[in-house]
Amino acid sequence: MGLTTDDMVFGPATEEQRRIAVALRGQSWAAPMSLADYIDRENFLSEHELTWGTQCRLWVVYLKGYPRQVIASCETTRKPVLIAAGDGSPPRDGHAYSISNVYTNPTYRRQGMAALLLRRVQDVIDKDSEFSVLYSDSGRNYYHSLGWPAFTSRQANLILLPRSRTPTSPRAGVGQSSEPNSPASSTSASSFSSSPPSNFMPSQPGLTLPLNQANLPRLCEVDEMYLRACFASLAGTRDRKMHVAFLPNKAQIDWQIARSEFDAEKLLGKTNPVKGAITTNGRAWITWAHDWREKRLRVLRISLALEGTSTEWQRVEDARALLEAALAEAREWGFSKVVVWNPDSEVTFGCKSVGNRHADEVKVVFDERINGSLPSLRWRGARLDRPRQQIEWEENQGFCLC
Description:
- The structure is a single chain.
- Helix 1 (15-29) packs across helix 2 and helix 7 (312-332) crosses helix 8.
- The radius of gyration is 22 Å and the shape is globular.
- It is built from eight helices and 15 strands.
- By secondary structure, it is α+β, with helices and mostly antiparallel strands.
- The two termini are 36 Å apart.
- The chain has helices at 15-29, 35-45, 113-125, 141-145, 216-235, 250-268, 312-332, 345-357; strands at residues 8-12, 56-63, 66-84, 92-104, 131-136, 154-160, 208-211, 242-246, 276-279, 285-291, 296-303, 337-341, 362-368, 374-379, 391-393.
């Protein structure tokens, strides 16, 4: 017999319900870590600057009269954002929620429990936010039906070719890239993951320096200043679109790194002090996180100097040098590739430049994510006057994921 809404209770999780919910989802998601290590990691991250206190809350639907019978759960994290209306008015600060860890107890699946949970969550988070986002691993349609249409999820895959492989297809370069609908782009970016080691080396290693934890606060402050300047110019476009972006602040970047470090400590017994790279001229930098499960390096953000302080050619060269540093880091850990989400035009040309310079060592593939981590955004109240076509999600990069 199916459940009805009268059989369920929605609310913020108690401490006991949180322990139950985390253990439930860990049974499906912990690998390659043990369940105990997964639970330890989630407890550790709950105390992080980004998620401590009420900034991150876990919500549950449970069986009425049986509070330990958790049916579905999810987490919401409140984050600072910038908003520019595109009507000539100045940009403003606001808040948005990132929804993550949506999970249904296997006993209660295919009964609409997650949908019920998310509709109740909408009622809560709409009260103190402008919009909410989630990253779908369930395709485009499910969350769209609940008010979260999918946004652009273009990515660049810089794949390290094994020493023994002889290139058989054109390398991605300026005017020669593997674009999403071309035959070359159909090559699976994961097909090289078990290949022999790469012999990749940066073409000009002296152009970058390692970036460590101590560098983050100052660089994130500068990066936020850059973003605010960009949004000030967006406000003057008068395109009548709502431009939004999450702030690339230290808390957001560091949460990703802390998660990766915890995994490394548990899986490898060691961590790496290098969190990215910065050009020796100090003009641009990159931050990254190690994805130990997928054996890849995820670029969190590439920050290039503002127009007016450098030329386009200089920014492309900076991007190339930073991407080469990322590839060297990936090679060091035996990873198969570096992944960049939604690269802008200068980073895209930087990727192509890497492909040109390292034709026998790196294959650059541009494609669209269709199966996992699809960025989806819902405006507060899912107002009809704010359809998908009227919202521009700016700087939708790896650091936004949470």
